[in-house]
Amino acid sequence: MAEPQSYANHAKRPPVPFLAAWFAATAAAASFLFGLFIDFSVETLALFLTAGAVSVGIPLARRFALGVQDRVIRLEERLRMERLLPDDLKGRIEDLTTDQLIGLRFASDAELSGLVRRVLDGELTERKEIKQAVENWRADHQRI
Question: How does pLDDT run across 89-143, given as a tens digit for each residue?
Fold first, then answer.
């Protein structure tokens, strides 16, 4: 069984192949750039442009995937809050930002209402401080 999730260990790191591809693309771009100054050819230019496209494309692909993940988390948390929050807080769900919803996703069902109230009252505003305020961590092992 996996280690229980908490604020200290919840961050998901990019996989090694992602980092290796980023390193390879950057190294290739640097090599081809150096090659442009020494021996210019159409093939060198094509390889340089390809390396540049890969160097830009990999981080963009990661960013887009994280953006989609944030949207899914936002939807899941809004649905969860509609089910769990008292009536006086349900009408204020739309006042929560995406970052706040992402921070609240780790809160257990029992403490969700109290944390949402603290966030809406302005006591907690940043994703990091919301996560740190969670006492009973609700693990999310299906993140990408």
Answer: 999 999 999 999 999 999 999 999 999 999 999 999 999 999 999 999 888 777 6
- Separation CA 125–CA 96 (nearest Å): 10
Distance of CA 119 to the CA centre of its chain: 20
Using alpha carbons, select from 8, 10, 11, 7 the residue that is nearest to residue 130: 7
C-alpha–C-alpha distance, residues 88 and 85, integer Å: 8
pTM above 0.90, yes or no: no
DSSP letter string over 13-55?
A: PPPHHHHHHHHHHHHHHHHHHHHHHHS--HHHHHHHHHHHHHH
Q: What length does the chain have?
A: 144
